Structures are given as structure tokens and as C-alpha cells.
């Protein structure tokens, strides 16, 4: 009632709750999803797949809204930057972004997932052991410069889960959420030819169950006796 008035006309009898409506689903060949300075509340999800262009910036997803974005074909933007997801609730991941290459001869541009804040993503309950991830990101062309600055709190698994192929060099520890290898769909992370993944003294790189790190470029772990590098 505090936004747009008491449209159901019951005064203070009812109150909104997470999951009151199903949310927004964009797909089926839609040409564009563009959101800027939007607030979405109490829906189950914002989802977009098989959309020509996805650009979501400076928006807020509150009380039960998880975000699931994907791109299967084409080379148009897949961008999610400067957004806040809060009180997400039960979810595999508060934010999931997947960019596939399935069109012959077309290499999808790296997704841009930067400077987002995710909080309150939790597991579905027993026996779920994998849910409650802050962010999951998959793509055959992942540029670390384009998924930096993401943070979170109050998530069951407060981390950035990565799978696919790194096409740009990176140094760990990185600012923001810690990296974990693997997600629900692809369990490996590949360091491409010509790319270097550097782990400085004291860095920790964790891996989800069943996942792996494949190096076609360079892996440099510069630990010390006092601050070893740990893969676990």
C-alpha cells in the first residue's frame, strides 16, 4: 500500500510477502530486456533467456526475487551491473548468469556482471547442500575485468561460483566475493591459452564438489612458508 496506494482496498488487513507473484519472464525470441533504476518486489524471479539484448543496471530486487539470465545465441549485450538483490530467500543462486555459444561461427561476447550486491540467498532446506549461492557465472568467454566488484552478505554460500573459460588474466585474491570453481551446469573452469591465473601469497581457491581447474595457459601460485597458496 505504500507504493501506488491501496489497490486491493482492504486497508491494513493484508501485507505483501515474498513470492506473492511469479515475477517477470522474458524469452521466446524477445528482442530486448532493458531495466535501469527499477525496483521489483515480492515476485519469485526475473528471468530472461533467448533474448536479443539484456541490460540491467542500477536496479533493486527485493524480498524473494532471484535473477536468472541466459544467452544461447548471438553476440548482443548480456549485462548486469550496479544492482542490489536483497532478502533473496531460497534459491540455487541469488544471481545466475549463463552465456552459451551454440551458433556455429558465432562467439558470444563476455558477459558483464559487475558491482552487484547480493544478500539473503539461502538453501532450499534438507537435503539441499548446493543452494544458497550468492552468484553463479558461466561462459565460454569470461573476462575477469568484466565480473569484478561483486559483493554479498548473509548468503549460505557467500561466493562467486565460476565455470567456463577465462579469456583474460586474473590475480587472486580478487576484490569482492571469493571465487569458487564450478556451478550447477558446468563443473570446470579453464584458463585459456595465453592467459595467466596468478595466486598471490595467502590466496585460497576453492572448488565445488566434482569440479576441476584446467590450465591451457599459465598457472602461477606464489605462496610463502608463512602464507601458502591453498587449493581446496
Which helices and strands appear, and what pairs or packs with what?
Layout: E1 21-26, E2 32-36, E3 39-41, E4 43-48, E5 53-57, E6 60-62, E7 66-71, E8 78-81, E9 84-86, E10 89-90, E11 93-99, E12 112-114, E13 117-119, E14 121-122, E15 133-142, E16 151-153, E17 157-166, E18 170-172, E19 179-181, E20 188-191, E21 196-199, E22 204-207, E23 212-215, E24 218-221, E25 230-231
Parallel strand pairs: 1-4, 2-5, 3-6, 4-7, 5-8, 6-9, 7-11, 8-12, 9-13, 10-14, 11-15, 13-16, 15-17, 17-19, 17-20, 18-21, 19-22, 20-23, 21-24, 22-25
Model description:
The chain is an all-beta fold and 232 residues long. 0% of the residues lie in helices and 47% in strands. It has no helices and 25 strands. It has strands spanning 21-26, 32-36, 39-41, 43-48, 53-57, 60-62, 66-71, 78-81, 84-86, 89-90, 93-99, 112-114, 117-119, 121-122, 133-142, 151-153, 157-166, 170-172, 179-181, 188-191, 196-199, 204-207, 212-215, 218-221, 230-231. Strands 1, 4, 7, 11, 15, 17, 19, 20, 22, 23 and 25 form an 11-stranded parallel sheet that branches. A 5-stranded parallel sheet has the order 3-6-9-13-16, with no helix packed on it. The protein is globular.
Amino acid at each position: 500500500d505504500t507504493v501506488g496506494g491501496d489497490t486491493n482496498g482492504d486497508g491494513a488487513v493484508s501485507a505483501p510477502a515474498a513470492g506473492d507473484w511469479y515475477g517477470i519472464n522474458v524469452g521466446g525470441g524477445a528482442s530486448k530486456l532493458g531495466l535501469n533504476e527499477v525496483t521489483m518486489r515480492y515476485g519469485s524471479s526475473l528471468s530472461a533467456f533467448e533474448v536479443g539484448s539484456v541490460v540491467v543496471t542500477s536496479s533493486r530486487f527485493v524480498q524473494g526475487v532471484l535473477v536468472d539470465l541466459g544467452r544461447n545465441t548471438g553476440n548482443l549485450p548480456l549485462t548486469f551491473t550496479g544492482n542490489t538483490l536483497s532478502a533473496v530467500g531460497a534459491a540455487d543462486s541469488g544471481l545466475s548468469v549463463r552465456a552459451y555459444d551454440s551458433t556455429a561461427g558465432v562467439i558470444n561476447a563476455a558477459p558483464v556482471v559487475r558491482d552487484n550486491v547480493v544478500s539473503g540467498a539461502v538453501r532450499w532446506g534438507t537435503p539441499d547442500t548446493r543452494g544458497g549461492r550468492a552468484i553463479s557465472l558461466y561462459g565460454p568467454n569470461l573476462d575477469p575485468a568484466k565480473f569484478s566488484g561483486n559483493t554479498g552478505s548473509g548468503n549460505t554460500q557467500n561466493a562467486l561460483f565460476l565455470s567456463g573459460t577465462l579469456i583474460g588474466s586474473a590475480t587472486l585474491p580478487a576484490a569482492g566475493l571469493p571465487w569458487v570453481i564450478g556451478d550447477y551446469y558446468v563443473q570446470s573452469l579453464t584458463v585459456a591459452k595465453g592467459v595467466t591465473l596468478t595466486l598471490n601469497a595467502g590466496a585460497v581457491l576453492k572448488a565445488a564438489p566434482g569440479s576441476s581447474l584446467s590450465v591451457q595457459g599459465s598457472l602461477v601460485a606464489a605462496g610463502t612458508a608463512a602464507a601458502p597458496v591453498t587449493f581446496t
